[in-house]
Amino acid sequence: MIVNNFQAMRWLQTLRDKTLTPKLTLSLHRRITQNTLDTGDAAGRLRRSGEDVVVDLHGEIVHRPPPAEQLEQRLVDLCAFANGDTPAAFIHPVIRAITLHFWLAYDHPFLDGNGRTARAHFYWAMLCRDYGLFSFVSISTILRKAPASYARAFRETETDNNDLTYFLLA
C-alpha cells in the first residue's frame, strides 16, 4: 500500500498539466489499490450494483453512497468541477481541492480505496494550480490524528444539506 501511494504520488507529478477524466481517475485508483484489495477485480473499476453500503468494523452502516448506476455520470460531473469547467464563480484552488476530496469520498465510487483516491485527487488539484508544496503535507497523518473530527465533519455535512463548511473547517 505504501509503495503504491508513493508511486501514485510520483505519477501525479507528471499529470499536473492534464485534465482530470474518468479514465484518469480509474487509472489512479488502479495504481493506488493494485494488489491490496480483497476483491481481485476491484482495482480501477467503479462499484457495482449491490456494493452500495459502507459499514464500519462492527458491521454498522455508516454511509449510503449514491447508487452504482449513477457513478459514471457523477464521475463526469466531478471531473468537470475539478477542471474548472463548471459555470460557477471563482473558487479558490484550496477550496476546490478540498471539495474534490469530499465529493469523491462521499460518492464512494470504488469498492475500497476511496479515501486514498480522494486524497490523491486533492494532491492532483493542488499540483495543477501550482500549489506543489502541498505534496509534502501528509493528509493521512493529519486525519489519523483526529479521525473523530474527520468523521463528524462528513456526518454534519451530509445531515446539513451538504453544507461543506463543516468539512472545510475540520
TrEMBL record:
Keyword ATP-binding: yes
The entry's keywords: ATP-binding, Nucleotide-binding
Residues bound to ATP: 55-63, 112-119
Transmembrane segments: none
Active site, renumbered: 108
Boundaries of every Fido domain copy: 20-170
A GO MF term: ATP binding
Record's signal peptide: none
Keyword presence, Nucleotide-binding: yes
Protein name: Fido domain-containing protein
Source species: Candidatus Synechococcus spongiarum
